[in-house]
Known about the structure:
Blueprint: H1 3-9, H2 11-24, E1 36-40, H3 43-57, E2 63-67, E3 79-83, H4 90-99, E4 104-109, H5 115-118, E5 122-125, H6 138-150, H7 155-165, E6 180-185, H8 189-204, E7 208-212, E8 228-232, H9 240-246, E9 250-252, H10 258-275
Parallel strand pairs: 1-2, 1-3, 3-4, 4-5, 6-7, 6-8, 8-9
Helix pairs in contact: 2-6, 2-7, 3-6, 3-8, 7-10, 8-10
Amino acid sequence: xxxxxxxxxxxxxxxxxxxxxxxxxxxxxxxxxxxxxxxxxxxxxxxxxxxxxxxxxxxxxxxxxxxxxxxxxxxxxxxxxxxxxxxxxxxxxxxxxxxxxxxxxxxxxxxxxxxxxxxxxxxxxxxxxxxxxxxxxxxxxxxxxxxxxxxxxxxxxxxxxxxxxxxxxxxxxxxxxxxxxxxxxxxxxxxxxxxxxxxxxxxxxxxxxxxxxxxxxxxxxxxxxxxxxxxxxxxxxxxxxxxxxxxxxxxxxxxxxxxxxxxxxxxxxxxxxxxxxxxxxxxxxxxxxxxxxxxxxxx
Length: 299
């Protein structure tokens, strides 16, 4: 078993730990009504999108998500929440340093002694969700579980569903003819769909894209054909499935919560990587954390 497979399999228990942690760090997390900016890079950026959408759609306060390198420093927020598994990502560190003179910064990380944690006003550390893998899985989903639990979702139930998703047959076989993977989401699951597409690229080198479900009609559907798989992380809007099927593409419908669906995607892309002779523990051109020198080059 690869390292990333072990980490994928640990997610139900890690989500339960994150949900328990949410109760003990309640005072560190954003209060109802606060205007909050979430920021991250790569996986953490997409998770930021998912969490921000959950918070705002739940009526807990205005919430925006930004790639750390594109954070609009002229805007005012009551709290900035920086997400980083390692706490060493250069762009996130730079954003936190730029924000601190003007407002509060909360860091969500696996390492409470990291450089990013030392820049924070508040820190929520999840060492139990840390990973050896370059490819993020459980730290990202534990971050979602933390915030969803804080917002009132029943994460033990979702964790139980994830446990079943770890042993159920996958909806696709890695041996199938596969030209393109498309992931669709709605609301908070748009960020999760983008994370699913990133996992397919990182682990398996697959051509993968992600869109809000109704945006798929507006151009991307034009390249769908036999060999295209459209994987929905949330229920598709009425009529869209029929239009996709007319292209010859195959649809994978969601069977559970979008976070559980992401676990199924993780399992599939690792299987696809192994089928293609790739090592999902050592993805091409990637490191565990992007740390740059002062000239913007990898350090």
